[in-house]
Design a protein that fits this description.
This protein is α+β, with helices and mostly antiparallel strands and 482 residues long. An eight-stranded antiparallel beta sheet has the order 6-7-10-11-18-15-14-13, with no helix packed on it. The chain has a four-stranded antiparallel beta sheet with strand order 1-2-3-4, with no helix packed on it. It has a four-stranded antiparallel beta sheet with strand order 5-12-17-16, with no helix packed on it. α5 crosses α7 and α7 packs parallel to α9. The protein is elongated, with a radius of gyration of 26 Å. About 2% of the residues have low confidence.
């Protein structure tokens, strides 16, 4: 459905459009601007003199920036002037920076006469939860939506049934004229061979709205590009004797890893997450773009393990983020248990209302022993005693989960039995409902003890016992080995 889409992502913002850069109104492809599992733009369309510009090409190889090139169709101006096809260059340059989406519309008149254009930008904002967009759950919207427009800003706001206020602010660098509650007209005068531009800035937000100040487009883009370069320079560099391989596959792989990273804030010393002054930010890889661009326990751990040689900050951030959300109580609705590592976390309205169990959802049998493995491997790579001291209690609680809750029947094997109505049936890496089958094709019943999970538990206990012995706790080390 999204095979022809253009997807940009940076931190918690995703922009998914068609090849024209539009979010078509009332489409069936789930395009939109997403922030914290909520669609903050459900339509965004460009028209020039009432017409779609003619598409030529687009590029989006850096994941956070895209450029779309167009020309004009044949046009007849109100004064009778004919503007031949392909005599106006129209370019859309856009990027997402983790806080907002920015776009510059550039126009260049190749004619020998001036051209007056009417540029219309149309927006819609439905504030649908990601699960509702994808059709998994039907969302009953609260109906408290408001739209406000002044000459340079269009603001959508919505108070959900979870009592959370969400905003989408669209700011322009020049004054426009409202055509409707959701469409804005800009009149541009193009002299021959003289570039003209129109910029807009879209910021989604949750909670109290703050004034939107339009940043300098070029300076902001340069800063974002520099952050990617700085990240790349801080990571291990791989080179082969094939320059094309290095430039295409390896370079693109590094960019892809960087685009998957989220910079999640977790409270320090038990403070409230909203208290930014007493919080710390940690790197966590998300599971996949576009629909799984949130932390998944298993996916984040395996990604962190595989990128230890590339940058161990990913592993440390993952460990600290997962440790913060480690299970504390028994809750059948979310599959939470003391010491358990979560499967998936969502931040939208349906999760807040508990209409989906993902706040977070703990329906995974393998993330908990994998957490211990990542803890041991990260210490081996970094030798960080601070990491060891901070996270050892969490690793011990994870092992305790394997022994007690993971092996509920005491037979020595870690198994799972799903309990949440809104969760997944199977809790291994193959979590589709029919992924476990008997030889005759019948769907296997649960509880199930997956073979790879027993290997994870064995390795987790062996590696943790080595670390404990290295730090002088021979008694605990001996118990784990036995």
């Amino acid at each position: 459905m999204l095979s022809d889409s253009v997807v940009l992502k940076e931190n918690h913002i995703q922009m998914i459009t068609d090849q024209l850069g539009d979010i078509p109104s009332a489409d069936a492809a789930n395009y939109g601007l997403y922030y914290y599992d909520t669609r903050h733009l459900s339509a965004f369309e460009l028209r020039v003199n009432g017409l779609k510009p003619l598409y030529l090409s687009h590029t989006a190889d850096r994941n956070y920036i895209a450029t779309f090139q167009f020309v004009n169709p044949n046009m007849l101006l109100p004064d009778g002037t004919r503007v031949p096809r392909q005599t106006l260059s129209i370019r859309r340059t856009r990027f997402v920076d983790g806080r907002m989406f920015q776009e510059r519309l550039g126009f260049f008149n190749c004619n020998h006469f001036a051209v007056d254009l009417e540029v219309t930008l149309s927006f819609e904002c439905d504030f649908l939860d990601m699960f509702a967009v994808r059709g998994y759950v039907q969302q009953r919207l609260a109906g408290q939506q408001h739209t406000r427009f002044d000459q340079k800003q269009l603001t959508f706001s919505y108070v959900g049934r979870d009592k959370v206020l969400r905003h989408t602010a669209v700011k322009f660098d020049q004054a426009g004229e409202p055509l409707s509650a959701q469409s804005v007209l800009f009149r541009l005068h193009l002299e021959p061979h003289t570039p003209v531009s129109l910029s807009l800035y879209v910021r989604p937000s949750v909670g109290r709205a703050r004034p939107l100040k339009a940043p300098a487009f070029d300076r902001h883009l340069e800063s974002l590009a520099r952050s990617y370069s700085d990240w790349d320079a801080a990571c291990t560099r791989f080179e082969t004797n094939n320059e094309y391989f290095d430039r295409s596959l390896l370079r693109q792989s590094r960019l892809d890893v960087r685009s998957l990273l989220e910079f999640d804030t977790i409270p320090a010393n038990g403070s409230h997450p909203a208290d930014k002054a007493d919080s710390t930010s940690h790197i966590v890889p998300s599971a996949g773009i576009p629909w799984y661009a949130v932390p998944f326990g298993r996916d984040a751990i395996i990604t962190a393990l595989q990128t230890l040689v590339y940058n161990p900050e990913i592993a440390e951030g993952t460990l600290r983020f997962l440790a913060y959300h480690q299970g504390k109580k028994v809750n059948p609705a979310t599959e939470e248990e003391p010491g358990k590592i979560f499967h998936e976390i969502r931040r939208g309205e349906l999760a807040n209302l508990r209409e989906v169990p993902h706040l977070p959802y703990y329906g995974t049998v393998d993330a908990t022993p994998l957490f211990v493995i990542l803890f041991a491997e990260t210490y081996k790579w970094t030798g960080s005693e601070q990491l060891y001291s901070d996270l050892l209690p969490h690793a011990m609680r994870a092992v305790e989960w394997c022994n007690r809750y993971g092996d509920a029947d005491g037979d020595g094997y870690v198994e799972y039995q799903p309990r949440s109505e809104g969760g997944v049936l199977n809790h291994g890496w193959k979590d589709s409902w029919d992924s476990l089958q008997y030889e005759d094709g019948r769907v296997a019943s649960t509880p199930a003890a997956l073979i790879e999970v027993q290997g994870y538990v064995y390795r987790a206990k062996r590696e943790l016992s080595d670390l404990l012995e290295q730090h002088g706790d021979t008694g605990s080390a001996k118990r784990l080995r036995s």
